[in-house]
Write a structure and sequence with these properties.
The protein is of the alpha/beta class and about 240 residues long. It is built from six helices and 16 strands. It has an eight-stranded mixed β-sheet. GO terms for molecular function: nucleotidyltransferase activity.
Length: about 240
Amino acid sequence: MQCVILAAGRGVRMGEAVKEIPKPLLPVAGKSILERTFDELPWQIDEVIFVVGYLGAQIKKKFGTKYKRFKIRYVQQKERKGTGHALKICQPYLKGRFMVLMGDDLYCQTDLARCLRRDLCLLACQKKYEGKGGILKLAPDGRLLEVIESPKIPPSDLINTGTYVLDKRFFDYPLVAYQNHDGNTEYGLPQTVALMAKNLPVYIEKATKWFAITRPEDIEKAEKWLVSSVSQLTG
């Protein structure tokens, strides 16, 4: 099974930390974010497709065409047109079901494995809403109805982690366009998945461990989070 890892962005909110290194290669407790992602991939995954852009040559140099047990392919996102566009350009290389992850988040293998039990799935984190992020609206049976970006009144306490299990039916739907913070048009992956969910059941799994690295201070927080996670596992 394949996993697409979106690792093309500049990570502008990281400031000087990403001036000479792409955000997914930033070290967290002695390992890069992407090395930690590889550690957490479920056994079903045997191929990784990286979507690269900003300083992508460093990611290619780091992992090559094979890393540990994984075959690796690279797809260049030449234009910054959003996460939906990033997945769309991978279409020629995808077969059957596949997983999609963000290249700058920390995951838990158990959560990812639970997602793979569903035909179509989105991983959500249940946490207090702080005014930003994609908030999920669900049907009574737990299916996805809508992903609402930064709503004033959130319909739930479930935040989209940007983790998906999809299949090639995703490409039957037109990419959903939206205006980003700079006023430019991008094509959103969560918005397009929500469109897909109007016809196909996309179920939700809740994350037990997930950490999004957004700003420089998040690196230290992530290291403490990792220590806390290990402590919980070892009792």
